Write a sequence for this structure.
């Protein structure tokens, strides 16, 4: 593991009047981006020097230092906008210019918004629109972010996070599935309609916790069943827990499995179903909810 030493000198303006802990923290907060960027700049320079030295040691005389790139490379981070100029090397053998640190760090061409900067915006987008989330991040960090970039970044984030592994070696016995309605936004932050988000949990047995084994958006139960049967040892599953929604039993329940209706859903939904069938009297205080297990 490499070690880089950074000697950092800070000069902060401290108010003379009304000095308290709150004002000190506020001063530090106001300068946090500057502090972080100075550390990041020193780290990049330190790593860059090591990469260049390693290349020149391995191929003596081949690589010649050739200054820095003409334009500043800009990165949008959660602390704001960071700029850096990468060092250039001239390859005498290939007769071309290269940027060793870009290659060492996997810097993608034309990528300005770092994944790290999307984390707070993604958290806000769950509760707000893409437009409002982008505006709030701009207010906090001072760095603008297009709502379309946030939409694209969240899509990429979800694709990377939703790669569920093969779980055939896990001895799951119980499977639980459910779903709820969600509102979908497009890249401009406008609502484009509602769909269903569905998920599946599995447990290894009694007194064992249920673990997430998949979730899907706008996906039918038939496709979900194909996914689960490909990744789980479905032959070992004994019980399917669900609310009995359309398509669940037809696609997820096998002959060797028992279907257990969710009692919580029953207590919540059954009185409404009776009311819809004009049996109001059974939905009043005379209705004994202890009878629900037997009714299910």
């Amino acid at each position: 593991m490499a070690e880089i030493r950074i000697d950092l000198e800070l000069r902060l303006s401290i108010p003379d009047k009304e000095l308290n802990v709150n004002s000190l923290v506020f001063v530090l907060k106001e300068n946090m981006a500057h502090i972080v960027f100075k550390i990041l700049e020193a780290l990049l320079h330190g790593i860059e020097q090591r990469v260049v030295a390693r290349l020149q040691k391995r191929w003596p005389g081949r690589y010649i230092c050739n200054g820095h790139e003409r334009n500043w490379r800009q990165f949008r981070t959660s602390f704001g906008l960071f700029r850096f100029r990468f060092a250039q090397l001239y390859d005498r053998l290939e007769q071309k210019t290269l940027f060793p640190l870009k290659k060492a760090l996997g810097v993608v061409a034309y990528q300005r918004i770092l994944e790290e900067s999307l984390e707070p915006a993604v958290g806000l987008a769950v509760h707000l629109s893409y437009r409002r989330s982008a505006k709030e991040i701009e207010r906090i960090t001072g760095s603008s972010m297009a709502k379309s970039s946030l939409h694209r970044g969240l899509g990429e984030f979800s694709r990377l996070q939703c790669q569920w592994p093969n779980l055939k070696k896990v001895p799951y016995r119980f499977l639980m599935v459910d779903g709820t309605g969600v509102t979908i936004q497009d890249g401009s932050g406008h609502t484009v309609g509602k769909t269903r988000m569905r998920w599946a949990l599995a447990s290894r047995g009694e007194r064992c916790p249920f673990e997430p084994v998949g979730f899907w958006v706008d996906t039918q139960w038939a496709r979900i069943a194909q996914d689960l049967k490909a990744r789980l040892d479905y032959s070992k599953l004994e019980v399917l827990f669900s609310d009995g929604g359309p398509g669940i039993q037809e696609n997820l329940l096998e002959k060797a499995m028992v279907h257990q209706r969710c009692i919580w859903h029953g207590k919540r939904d059954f009185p409404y179903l009776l009311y819809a069938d004009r049996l109001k009297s059974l939905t009043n205080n005379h209705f004994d909810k202890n009878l629900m297990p037997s009714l299910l």
Summary: The CA atoms of residues 229 and 252 lie 9 Å apart.
